[in-house]
């Protein structure tokens, strides 16, 4: 029997718990109960968030109005929440993961399998640092990932959606994750390409910044589609440069083209970049972020910066005109209109294409 | 020296003539003059359309406000327009092509290369009938295609866009077509996959109908992205079933993912399908088409019908749940909401995936 704990309880974590709980109660091979580790907070009413979740079956703070299922148990003690589990679902802000791994090291069952739903792995000078790799290294467990076109609130309302599990060799574990997440309205497909799936989840945010510039410049659907396509191609080229095992097919999955479409149509990266272009690049990103996102940082701008560093370190910058342009524009070195001057870089872009 | 004639002068044909004329005047290997065959019409002013085009350099009826270039010469006589050319660009409504080919057979230079910009090849019971194949057979010339995310009016305004040339073996000819069409704002890439490129241009309209249903049901960006992704996968599977030479990479080009995005965001197929779903499928497509499109027929509904016939003839219907659903919904056999019940067909969809 498999026992699941969800590590994290934000908007997406709560929706994940709901999806999982609807399956554990239905399937014989899983314990009904799903533990959910909740970073304890006091609500304005004076009550503890965990108490309210356990009383109402609702995460009133991060997913109000949606029943999680009676078999979801909120637990404020991280070590206690995971101690009986052999399937761990990680879905916290990515900056918390290093600390969580340190606290959990040596305290989990040896037969545990992990899965990361965290979008936002870091790209360091030496190359991309995958969160699934961090989890594997620090906890000594196998770790898959689940990514896709997943706007949490739409899935909470049971609107049709898809997701991709990326796994590494252990096909049986991947099939179990698919069983655990898949519902009639949430279709999950597994591909043996953990790096490809995880990189899609991060790099799409850079393309969304580019798409936002096009929107802000009012260039129309044609240009936007072209920029998204070039972005998808650079995502694929970047991923394959670091991990030759990455598969082309991954980019046809939900984590690839579908998540890219969703992120470039809605989402905050697109939105702030749109405002940046409308202001002619005259108001810095920092300022617009503070105004529009209540102090949250834009993932896409940070990732563009990281991608720039790693490409420049390797001397590969010229092969990624779109990624390079996003960084140059977002740091004020080029005007927003430079995003559609990719053609100036065509011979170099051709070089990239010949590598694929 | 190469001499170009554009056969057709509608909205897209006029933009094509403009792109080409800007290059023939610049490049030494082409004659400056570009002939454009115009189906003669009398304008409300009493003047002939060809006379006005030749006087003003503007196609006042189909592309008003845009200068085509002084080296574009409108010619109402088809046979005369093509007689000196050895590069023929076909860009007429597809129902005219059979008649045009019959008129031209035996009357063109033996060293002629053709290219078709016509989206809308037919799928007959025996399989797809490509327009490029029709041209090759009837005129005895090699024929490439050019497709992509190409909203004519946006390209006329010189907004950044891309296109794909699909060619068949003759790489030198393909490079010449790229030279002829490519501009700083219109980036053209050639791929050796004429069938893949041409099928993209047709099948995307079926997916756009599905996307319109999702919009009309107000299912959100997540669901729409999922439906577009499944559509792209079925486009690829369908193409590869008929032409094993079709390449996965083609679907990453402008003719694939980019054209799909443009067509599912704007375009009349999406628009009428949206209205159909909003009316709960209670007003037939014919009626909405007549009301919204002044009697034009929707390409997507026709293609869905043709695709349905050919798949049913071969017994392959169950492998294409999205294509099948579009046909069933547009003919009133299923409600619009069936478009997001693809998951019911998942095992069968899985069968398709295992073929890829």
Please provide a written account of the structure.
With 356 residues, chain A is of the alpha/beta class. The first copy, chain A, has two domains: 1-191, NAD(P)-binding Rossmann-like Domain (Rossmann fold); 194-343, N-(1-d-carboxylethyl)-l-norvaline Dehydrogenase, domain 2, CATH 1.10.1040.10. In chain A, 49% of the residues lie in helices and 14% in strands. Chain A has 15 helices and ten strands. The first copy, chain A, has helices at residues 11-24, 49-56, 78-82, 97-104, 131-139, 152-156, 171-181, 194-216, 221-242, 254-265, 268-278, 285-293, 299-314, 321-330, 346-355, and strands at 2-7, 30-37, 72-75, 87-90, 113-116, 122-124, 127-129, 142-147, 161-166, 186-191. In chain A, the strands form two sheets. An eight-stranded mixed sheet of chain A has the order 3-2-1-4-5-8-9-10, with helices on both faces. A two-stranded antiparallel ribbon of chain A has the order 6-7. In chain A, strand 4, helix 4 and strand 5 (113-116) form a beta-alpha-beta unit. In chain A, helix 8 (194-216) runs parallel beside helix 11 (268-278), helix 8 (194-216) packs across helix 13 (299-314) and helix 8 (194-216) packs across helix 14 (321-330). In chain A, 54% of the residues are buried. Chains A and B meet through helix 9 and helix 10 of A and helix 9 and helix 10 of B.
